[in-house]
Write a structure and sequence with these properties.
18% strand, Beta-Lactamase, binds adenosine-5'-diphosphate, Heat Shock Protein 90, 5-stranded antiparallel sheet, single chain
């Protein structure tokens, strides 16, 4: 039994005990009081009946009392006694064992002789015992007392059976409630322990594990929230693993190249100087590739963390012109015509470095993945408070099935071609992450007019005075 179950069980039992105690006492007290009250009225009416019969007597004697009372057949009580002012019994209905001639010093009689009505009733689980007394008054003078006594087992029996019925009902209710609460608390704690188990499993790294708690109650909702949290955790974890494995793979290739080249130099005897220079040159190239990859990885890590540089309004046209200047030689070498058009109005909230990186990567890609005699055209304009940059080429294009993946880390349509042109497979994901962090969007599409690709970047146009 879990501690939660114990707590539930204990509190249920306490509540049930309280309810049952109430059920077994309150109705009994109420019905007992009702009987007491009815006894008091019936006793008072019996006594007043006797009182009426004696009302004409100036003094009470054994004879005149028995004579006056001879007409009363039924008093409704077990015993009636009449005493004189000294408490001597003048009349007694009890036979045998009549107390006539004896002195009765009952409290009630004493009270009655003092001019007050008295009543007493008690219940001892076998009978209702009631005693009552009233003074006999003649012309404002107490001339004696009437004492009535009743011993009622019938009503006591009724009350007793009522009590035992209540006990039976209570016992059945107790059993039922306890059974029900045991089942309910079992269900509840089973759900909680299942959830707990799932949390522990996920904590230990089993990200595919889900809590099997169903239902729309609070526990079910917590389980659903936990499962969706685990879903996200799994996606992040999968992405992290993929990233680490891709990154290691990417770093492994140039490192293996360096190792092979250096082994060849070391193991080949009498290698001529020009071959050694060629090999060392290759080693240098591989080292450059490693440098590019690590730089890109660092950039991505910076983007993943919150350490972004403070944004400032950047006028994009000068940056675009700078990129064109930087890449025009490469374009020339590849016999690709590089052109641009701009309305000069685009100002975005970013940093110059970031804008340069975005435009440079997209333009360099467009040149890299174009055939000689192709063209690359950049268009920068402002459309409804949005700075829009499109980079269009008529190069090899991107197949439909790859279109949705090109912004993923290390994704390349053609690995060999990308490597051959010095790509790391990280350029577009850096571009897209930067744009997203600055509140913009990027999309890639086939060129409408013929083969090739068009990338469109949208960034919010900075308002005047914004920083
Ligand atoms: P890479 O360093 O390989 O160029 P990117 O992230 O910049 O990596 O680009 C991802 C992939 O998208 C590239 O490998 C290439 O296959 C494809 N790609 C990007 N730009 C273009 C383009 N303008 N034309 C055709 N393919 C492109």
């Amino acid at each position: 039994m879990t501690s939660l179950q114990t707590k539930f069980g204990l509190s249920y039992i306490l509540i049930i005990i309280a309810v049952l105690i109430l059920l077994n006492t309150y109705p009994l007290i109420i019905s007992q009081n009702l009987v007491f009250r009815s006894k008091q009225t019936s006793m008072a009416s019996s006594v007043s009946m006797v009182e009426a019969a004696l009302s004409d007597l100036t003094t009470l004697t054994e004879d005149n009392v028995s004579q006056a009372l001879s007409g009363i057949e039924e008093t409704g009580v077990s015993r009636i006694m009449v005493t004189d002012t000294a408490g001597r019994v003048l009349y007694d209905t009890r036979e045998p064992g009549s107390a006539v001639g004896l002195y009765a010093f009952y409290t009630e009689i004493a009270q009655a002789l003092n001019g007050n009505d008295a009543f007493y009733c008690c219940y001892d689980s076998t009978a209702f015992l009631s005693r009552g007394a009233s003074p006999v008054v003649y012309r404002s003078q107490t001339v004696g007392a009437i004492y009535a006594y009743e011993y009622d087992t019938e009503q006591a029996q009724l009350l007793k059976s009522f009590q035992s019925n209540l006990m039976k009902i209570s016992f059945m209710i107790a059993l039922l409630v306890m059974g029900l609460s045991a089942v309910l608390s079992q269900m509840l704690t089973r759900q909680i322990s299942e959830l707990l188990q799932a949390i522990r499993k996920v904590r230990e790294g089993a990200y595919s594990h889900r809590a099997a708690v169903k239902g729309k109650d609070e526990i079910g909702q917590i389980a659903a929230e936990f499962n969706s949290l685990t879903d996200r955790l799994q996606v992040t974890e999968d992405a992290r693993r993929r990233f680490v494995s891709d990154a290691s793979h990417e770093l492994k290739t140039p490192l293996a190249g360096i190792r092979l080249l250096s082994d060849s130099i070391l193991q080949t005897k009498n290698m001529d100087v020009s071959t050694v220079r060629e090999f060392v040159g290759d080693i240098g190239e591989e080292a450059q590739r490693l440098e590019r990859i690590t730089e890109d990885l660092l950039r991505l890590t910076r983007l993943d963390s919150d350490a972004m540089e403070k944004a400032e309004p950047v006028t994009v046209t000068p940056v675009l012109k700078r990129v064109i200047r930087m890449l025009s030689l490469v374009a020339q070498e590849r016999e690709i015509s590089l052109s641009y058009e701009t309305d000069g109005a685009a100002v975005v909230l970013s940093t110059e470095d970031e804008m340069q990186q975005i435009i440079y990567n997209l333009t360099e890609n467009a040149i890299k993945y174009s055939a000689p005699m192709g063209f690359v055209h950049l268009n920068l304009r402002v459309e409804e408070k949005t700075a829009v940059l499109s980079v269009e080429d008529n190069g090899i294009g991107i197949p439909d099935e790859d279109m949705g993946h090109i912004f993923e880390r290390f994704y390349r349509v053609d690995k060999n071609r990308s490597r051959a042109v010095g790509g790391t497979g990280l350029g577009l994901s850096i571009v897209s992450d930067t744009i997203k962090r600055r509140g913009g969007t990027i999309e890639a599409a086939h060129r409408q007019a013929g083969p090739g690709t068009i990338f469109t970047v949208r960034l919010p146009q900075a308002e005047e005075g914004e920083a």
